[in-house]
Amino acid sequence: MGRDWLRKIRNEKDMTHEEVATLVKISRQYYGMIESEVRDPGVTLAKRIGAVLGFDWTLFFKHKGNETFPLDDSHAKEVV
Known about the structure:
Layout: H1 4-12, H2 17-24, H3 28-35, H4 43-53
């Protein structure tokens, strides 16, 4: 579970949690929580992680919905 896409990118770069965490200036434990999806990074941190691992930082915020505003558009009203 967690952010498998993030783990895959990090592994493809042959980097450890510690290496990524050091480069983005956070603890190894905090990076692990982000990768495990226990914590969500803010925009600034998402940008730093994306820059270090070479991916679009907005991936952290894609596919997010909530009970009020689910991802599908079935609740949306058509604007005329």
